[in-house]
Amino acid sequence: MENQSGQAPKKNSNVIYFLIIVVVALLGTDVYLYLQKNKSDVIVVSQGDEKQKLQNELDSLESQVEQVNAGKTKMSAEMQAKNDSLQSKIKVLRSELAKGTLTKEELAKAQENVKQLRYFVTNYTAQIDSLQKTNASLKVERDTLKTNLAVVKTKADTLTKQNHDLSNKVQIASALKVAVIDVAAFKVKGSGKEVQVSRSSPAKKIKISFTVASNAVAPKGSHDILIRVIDPTGNLITGSDAGAFTADGTSLQYTYKTSIDFKDDGSNYIIDWVNPSPFQKGTYTVLLYADGYTMGKTSLTLK
Fold first, then answer.
1. Would you say 102 and 45 are in contact if contact means Cβ atoms under 8 Å apart?
2. pTM over 0.85
3. What is the pLDDT along the chain (303 residues), one digit of tens a residue?
């Protein structure tokens, strides 16, 4: 009896030890599962943060590209292609993030793509900035050239006007002018002898006698002399020798045309003009023109 009662406590203690081991094992399993759950939550939270970070990066990159494009800088074909490529890559990454099923490897790859995209955007922005600076520099050069051209044109116009004025002055200065002029009426006898008269009825012609003022700039040689004879009624006398010419900027008709040999030596010149019609009583005006300007003027009164 004693032996049986002595073995019972030993068995009870073994059972107790076994239960303790089981409880400890269960507690260990619970702790392990709890830790694994927390670790999983951390991973999920970490991936969510990374996705948000990627989303922010894409927003920043897209905003940067839009700002560059808003500059309205004229891009080359190569730069336009790069711009299209950047926008396409951003769109693809946004689509992948929108799925919400990125694995750890896919998330790492997306991060690497964003890093490369940031590098390309930075270089792209630098190229656009350089292009804008170049365009600004070219605009300044263009405006400077326009200003210089305007200044040169103004100077050229001024010189042209000065040359024109100088040419006019030389032309005016080189035109012949009379120093002394006189006119008289003559009748012609049957013998051919000419006799000066003061009455209109016997007069047949007039003689214009003049000397030319000294002129060092006038070319020596032949000069056309155009004569206008105005009758007492104020009408220009014209005949078969009449014609048109320009003097003092005005278109005129002449009565008679001849020429003289100018030597700038004070020579006296005489021009005869026969009136195709009878002379009238009154005052005749005689005007001489040479080299496009008025040369001199005189008058004759017949009784």
1. no
2. no
3. 444 444 555 555 665 665 666 555 555 555 555 555 444 443 333 456 666 777 777 777 677 667 666 655 555 566 667 667 767 777 777 777 676 655 667 667 766 766 776 677 677 777 777 777 888 888 888 888 888 888 888 888 888 787 766 666 667 777 999 999 999 999 998 888 999 999 999 999 999 999 999 998 899 999 999 999 999 999 999 988 889 999 999 999 999 999 999 999 999 999 999 999 999 999 999 999 999 999 999 999 999
Identify the residue whose tokens are 């019609």.
Answer: 277
Confirm if 173 and 156 have CB atoms less than 8 A apart. Answer: no
Query: Do the beta carbons of residue 124 and residue 68 sit within 8 Å?
Result: yes
DSSP of 7-71: HHHHHHHHHHHHHHHHHHHHHHHHHHHHHHHHHHHHHHHHHHHHHHHHHHHHHHHHHHHHHHHHT
Q: How many Cβ atoms from other residues are within 10 Å of residue 218's Cβ?
A: 19
